[in-house]
Amino acid sequence: MIDEFKTLKSNSEGLFKDKGSKFFAYAFPIQSEEDVRFYLETVKAEHPKARHACYAYKLGIDETNFRANDDGEPSGSAGKPILNTITSFELTDTLVIVIRYFGGTLLGVPGLINAYKEATKEALSIAEIETKTINSLVKISYDFDQTNAVMQMVRKLELTVKEQTYDNRCGIILDVRNSYIDKIREELKEYWSLEIEVL
């Protein structure tokens, strides 16, 4: 079960030059496609004279929400190398925009592929990358005399308590990394009257 992913902690920038052309790369952590539109407009506004604003992004952990855009460069020469570099850094929820200023000498498709890849690499290699966990809320309902066992398990697995209730039965809501859900069940399996529910 995938229960963690890597993304950028903050924005970063890189620059790659080849035969007079300049490739300015901007990397952003993103949460949605609205973020993509916002950053594209922002970066384009900063570079009104640039000929190309090529980009790629990945969202989510299931490898299905991604896009690569060549913005007028030859097909596959810009967006795809940017996307492949994001993938090689094992990142998601990440957008990279590369602005190109033409230096007067044509680079050819192999040269463009290399330039967009290297500019992206420049931005990502200096970026602060963080690993985030994918969590769920887990509710445990139990009898009062099982409190000690439940709290021992919480301490042992170093879980975060979100809420506790003491009504007819005791209840606790935990913020749990997904791979720990089975561990909780294993720790408490001998208490058959206890209920564990993923919210």
Automatic annotation (TrEMBL):
Source organism, top-level taxon: Bacteria
Pfam family, one: Impact_N
GO BP, one annotated term: regulation of translational initiation
InterPro entries (UniProt xref): Impact, Impact_N, Impact_N_sf, Ribosomal_Su5_D2-typ_SF, UPF0029_Impact_CS
One annotated Gene Ontology cellular component of this protein: cytoplasm
Domain Impact N-terminal: 19-124
Matches recorded under PANTHER family: IMPACT FAMILY MEMBER YIGZ, IMPACT-RELATED
Similarity-based family: Belongs to the IMPACT family.
Protein known as: YigZ family protein
Organism per entry: Lacihabitans soyangensis
Lineage of the species this protein comes from: Bacteria, Pseudomonadati, Bacteroidota, Cytophagia, Cytophagales
